[in-house]
Amino acid sequence: MTKKSCLLLFILILSLNLKAQYISEIIEYKPAPGQFINTPYGNQAAAQSITGTTTGIVSLGAFGGYIIFKFQNPVENNIDNPYGIDFVIFGNPASELSAEPGIVSVMKDENANGLPDDIWYELAGSDYFFSSAVHNYEITYTNPGQSSAADVPWTDNVGESGYIFANDYHTQTYYPLPENFPNINQVNYTLSGTKITANIDYSDAANIHSYQRVFGYADNRLRGDVNSQLPDNPYTNETENMGGDSFDISWAVDENGNYVYLNEIDFIKVTCGVNANLGWLGELSTEISGAVDILPDNSVTGAEEIIVIKDLPQTIYTGNQYPLEAFLFNKGQLQTAADILFSCDLPGTSVDENNILTATQTGNLTVTATLVSNPNISTSINVTVSEPGYIENGSPNIFVPYPNPALNFFGIKNVNNVNIEISDSFGNIFKKIKGYSENEQIDISTLTSGIYFVKISDKNTVCIKKIIKN
Ligand SMILES: [Ca+2]
Ligand SMILES: [Ca+2]
Ligand SMILES: [Ca+2]
Ligand SMILES: [Ca+2]
Known about the structure:
Layout: H1 3-17, E1 23-30, H2 44-48, E2 58-59, E3 66-76, E4 87-90, E5 102-107, E6 120-123, E7 134-142, E8 152-156, E9 161-164, E10 188-195, E11 199-201, E12 209-211, E13 245-247, E14 252-253, E15 264-272, E16 287-288, E17 290-293, E18 305-309, E19 315-317, E20 321-323, E21 326-330, E22 333-334, E23 340-344, E24 349-351, E25 356-359, E26 363-371, E27 378-386, E28 400-402, E29 409-413, E30 418-423, E31 429-436, E32 442-443, E33 450-457, E34 462-469
Parallel strand pairs: 19-27
Antiparallel strand pairs: 1-3, 2-16, 3-15, 4-13, 4-17, 5-6, 5-15, 6-14, 7-8, 7-10, 8-9, 11-12, 18-21, 20-25, 21-22, 23-26, 24-25, 26-27, 28-29, 29-32, 30-31, 30-33, 33-34
């Protein structure tokens, strides 16, 4: 071989290697029930639509639904990639307020047989280490056995149950049909994975919001510049470059939550990571439009350290205690030794040595978590502090709990066949009632005195009312 042809061959190999890869093959698509399942967004053709592109669309259904795909070549965990990011997954969030977080796991074909029969490692995103994450969550969906849309009952392994509600917009059956999913049991089936808590704001029933997670989830961040070859920096809030959701193989953790180094991976699994009902919008369900791998470019630099704060309720109340949690990540890896200090800007508000927040005055509160060793690294969240009152703003006023305050029993007016959930302001649920109709007496005699929230939901509405127990 001449020197010249050798050089040409080298350039050819280089240019082949430098071509970013799209998904080349769908290995498995097993959705949970959902409003898009058995439609053109939720069948095998939908799953195929995300290969070779970033503009397909497939719905994973409710919690636990998943898709497994691969690229033609392994995806390298290359330290020279921008921000360390190895691949990007695109979803379809319409705005910063419509995140439907999917959890991403990766597998290396360690036994080199071409099959995904090795070990899945979850990529630990920003919410993985919060006390609210449930790491071995399992949910079982039961086929309601109807030929058109019907509520799909579920039970989980933490003693809860509910429905994927049928809505008026999608009239087909939501449980995966045998002609589309021959491998899904037609009586019931169980899906599992890590469950994170979405931050959903139900206060305006016409505009229910699901806020973005900070990093490490699919169907979470907005798409950016279609012509960019560079990924979004997941450690900044702005959408940079191609946008979408950036992933670093170095976020991989084992079943105990310890980081595991993988030099490359062969298979990627995306699982809907939230179990939530968005009222008339239906269940929260992750959608995927495609994925692309990222090429090395060590000229790109940006922020690498970020503090993530666990969400508080949008409204907190004077006199209550709110535990705060915040973590420092460096290139997306948890820094357990970091010393983080909380501060508050509202008079009468304080955080004690156990990071418990209390407020004595109403107003708008900014809680800031600052890295003690470098005060330039900080993150803030904003909440409203209110006096405990009677009726939540923004909820349909016709659903009225009475008497309020109540001692041992209360009822709710103007409701028929709804689900009721009674929780405190931390989201701890004390009571669930299915098929409640107006004026039935709800027993709260065993609850301690204080403020509780009554979540009233049916297939069209979710609203939250406040009640005081004397
Ligand atoms: Ca990487
Ligand atoms: Ca979506
Ligand atoms: Ca294998
Ligand atoms: Ca960014």
